[in-house]
Write a structure and sequence with these properties.
Order of helices and strands: EHEEEEEHEEEHEEHEEEHEHEHEEEE
Largest sheet: 11 strands, mixed
Oligomer: single chain
Strand content: 35-45%
Helix content: 10-25%
Length: about 300
């Protein structure tokens, strides 16, 4: 297999259902023969779609990608609730009140879910309670109480209605649980509801259409569009172009005077787009935090 980059980069993978995000990382590690690989936000085993991976030293960039907005296409089933809010859980409620619902009513309720709200993560989630994932505690018979968090739904569009099935597209802030959103939709409609399928289509400006299928990765094949260099992957951050002398100072961990405006996080790159460091600009000074250019 041709190695797209000897040093580092961001790889876009299309995770299939039935495997964990860690499984995908393991496949990539074997395919690229790299010890370092990680992902910028997990997908549940039943979910599919875009998994953003950091390869080599780019694992140090993942923290700048995990908080980006996400977009999903989901399928919900009205009239049935599960304890996990998804198809992997046991049925806990069932009704036929969905039969009286109109398309206009469903679309209206979905539209009212747009906005900022407090959302409590599902008990069957990876949120850690005293260092242990909540889903493990629940499966051990323990009771868990998770704190609500603020999330924002940017848009929610009904794509298809074939009741009791509702297919929708949602754009939301990082940390939003779409299965909780589906359950909330059902509650506002007066019927049980759970998520039956979920596909992540976007993370920030990174799109599923560019991702490599897992089968291709297993065969050692990486489509060119699935490999994203570090600076383009961080295009949501301000970029300060530095000259070679300034790059050498940053690579040595030194602060560099600059006329760039202050910002909490910024990319420092050489002309042509080679990443030097990621850091901050304070009082007109470049402060490197993570250095990638070798001295």
């Amino acid at each position: 297999m041709k190695d797209p980059s000897p040093a580092m980069g961001i790889l876009l993978a299309d995770k299939p259902a039935g495997v964990t995000s860690h499984d995908v990382v393991a496949v990539v590690r074997r395919a690229l023969r790299r010890g370092k690989a990680g992902h910028a936000g997990t997908l549940d085993p039943f979910a599919t779609g875009l998994l953003v991976l950091g390869i080599g030293r780019a694992t140090r960039l993942l923290e700048y990608l995990t908080g980006l907005d996400k977009e999903y296409v989901g399928t919900a089933c009205l009239g049935v609730a599960t304890d996990s809010l998804d198809p992997e859980g046991a049925r806990v409620a069932e009704d036929d009140r969905w039969r009286a619902l109109s398309a206009d009513r469903i679309r209206s309720v979905a539209a009212r879910l747009v906005g900022t709200m407090l959302q409590t993560p599902p008990a069957y989630s990876a949120v850690k309670v005293d260092g242990v994932p909540a889903h493990r505690r629940v499966r051990r018979g323990e009771k868990v109480e998770l704190r609500p968090r603020t999330v924002t739904v940017r848009s929610m569009e009904i794509l298809e209605l074939a009741l009791p099935t509702v297919r929708f597209r949602v754009a939301c802030s990082s940390g939003t649980y779409v299965r909780s959103l589906a359950a909330e939709m059902g509650g506002r409609l007066g019927t049980a509801c759970h998520l039956t399928a979920l596909r992540r289509t976007r993370v920030g400006d990174l799109h599923l259409r560019d991702a490599a299928p897992l089968g291709a990765l297993q065969r050692g094949e990486i489509p060119p569009r699935a490999w994203v260099e570090a600076v383009p992957a961080l295009a949501h951050l301000p970029c300060v172009v530095v000259e070679p002398g300034e790059a050498a100072m940053l690579a040595a961990g030194r602060r560099v005077p600059s006329g760039a405006p202050d910002c909490g996080a910024a990319v420092f790159a050489l002309p042509g787009g080679r990443l030097v460091a990621v850091g901050a600009v304070r009082d007109g000074v470049l402060e490197p935090r993570k250095v990638f250019q070798r001295v």
